[in-house]
Amino acid sequence: MTGASRTSGSWRNWAGNVTARPVREVTPASVDELAAAVKRAADDGLRVKAVGTGHSFTTTAATDGVLIRPGLLTGIRQIDRTAGTVTVESGTPLKRLNLALAREGLSLTNMGDIMDQTVAGATSTGTHGTGRESASIAAQIRALELVTADGTVLTCSETENPDVFAAARIGLGALGVITAITFAVEPVFLLTAREEPMRFDRVTAEFDQLVAENEHFEFYWFPHTGNCNTKRNNRSAGPAAPPGKLAGWIDDEFLSNGVFQLACTLGRAVPATIPAIARVSSRALSARMYTDIPYKVFTSPRRVRFVEMEYALPREAAVGALREVKAMLERSPLRVGFPVEVRTAPADDIALSTASGRESAYIAVHLYRGTPHQAYFTAVERIMIAHGGRPHWGKLHTRDAGYLAEVYPRFGEFSALRDRLDPERLFTNDYLRRVLGA
């Protein structure tokens, strides 16, 4: 099969808040075809961006030049059981990877809570789950293949092009187009999930203890209430005990998607109803425990579309910042119908990782698609930046290169590598000019 190139129409992201009109779209079927498309774009004076499934809320993948779609670059290249790795094509959706690994008796160590993204899109923007020892998907990368601005295909690892590897695991598409990723994997294991309602005052008072005692801890706070829902995931000797089909459908589909969709629609139409809806919603999900393989525990269907902002803070600052968000909402006229999500991550060594060099906690705020979000996100962002917060690269924020250079100690290292690999800024766009500089 050969790839295709065509004059493009418009491209829209998952949330519907970003639209782009590239000059042409390319769907390469091989690394050679992708490299040729990059060189042709450079010859034509056009910028290049690769796009995944559009799950970023920022314009990080938008371009008015050449849009590369990775739909033909999918599948597993190699499983190395001795090394404990899997090499996968860049356009492979995480869902497909997880299913394939499970069939082989293997698993990633950690993952985020959705698996619609492509592996390259998820890692390039720093997608993460929650974890005491592991969180970021990019931190599980052991090697990657990258097409640079001159069409060169680089293989990068800790031993081969290590300076590129150190940065390109979360590269924002600014260093080139990733064509394959090698992840660390392990024999598939079981996780026991314990989901439990908990009062806001208790979960914030016991936050450090809950993080220390659990391999993976997260919680959701429902604004306009004192209620939270907590989730603790820990490895289990088994046996597997997945949710019953009916009970699982009620919790994961009927309540978390169907009823929640109706609640969001009503709240957008009549904002005054949101506090009452929140009080009911925060009590709708009851405590439950279940045991299953990792991707069935870590991930959940997300059918209600929204926009999101998320900041990574030094972990010790998270509880105080969250209390400030709660106090801000209590004294403001804002009405927020989406829960606030809190997760954690250990420090890692990736230059532009939100957890680079520091143990981190994440505070994520969401609003239903189509709801005016600027006032809420701006108020929350003021709190986050006062604590030295780092915005998630794929989620809405207003920070620029001047601010980001202050909160990322290795920002200059990334910039120097970008100057070397893409001096003409073939892979830039308006977003990258803002966050990385011209």
User: Structural class of the helix and strand makeup?
Assistant: alpha+beta
* Major sheet: arrangement of strands: 17-14-16-15-19-20-18-21
What number is the mean pLDDT? Answer: 93
Content of β-strand: 15-25%
Percent of residues in helices: 25-40%
Major beta-sheet overview: 8 strands, antiparallel
Describe the oligomeric state of these chains in a short phrase: single chain
Number of strands: 21
Question: Uncertain segments of ≥5 residues (pLDDT<50)?
Answer: none
The N- to C-terminal Cα distance equals 38 Å
Helical element count?
Answer: 14
Q: Mind telling me the C-alpha Rg?
A: 21 Å
Descriptive account of the structure:
By secondary structure, the protein is of the alpha+beta class. It has 14 helices and 21 strands. The protein has helices spanning 31-43, 94-103, 119-124, 162-168, 200-205, 207-213, 245-269, 274-284, 294-298, 318-330, 374-386, 401-407, 411-421, 430-436; strands at residues 4-7, 11-12, 19-20, 24-27, 48-50, 66-68, 76-80, 85-89, 106-107, 141-147, 153-157, 177-184, 186-187, 190-199, 216-221, 227-236, 288-292, 306-314, 340-345, 360-368, 390-391. The strands form five sheets. Strands 17-14-16-15-19-20-18-21 form an eight-stranded antiparallel β-sheet, with helices on both faces. The longest helix has 25 residues, at 245-269. It starts with a strand and ends with a helix.
Task: Give the arrangement of secondary structure elements.
Blueprint (H helix, E strand, L loop, with lengths): L3 E4 L3 E2 L6 E2 L3 E4 L3 H13 L4 E3 L15 E3 L7 E5 L4 E5 L4 H10 L2 E2 L11 H6 L16 E7 L5 E5 L4 H7 L8 E8 L1 E2 L2 E10 H6 L1 H7 L2 E6 L5 E10 L8 H25 L4 H11 L3 E5 L1 H5 L7 E9 L3 H13 L9 E6 L14 E9 L5 H13 L3 E2 L9 H7 L3 H11 L8 H7 L2
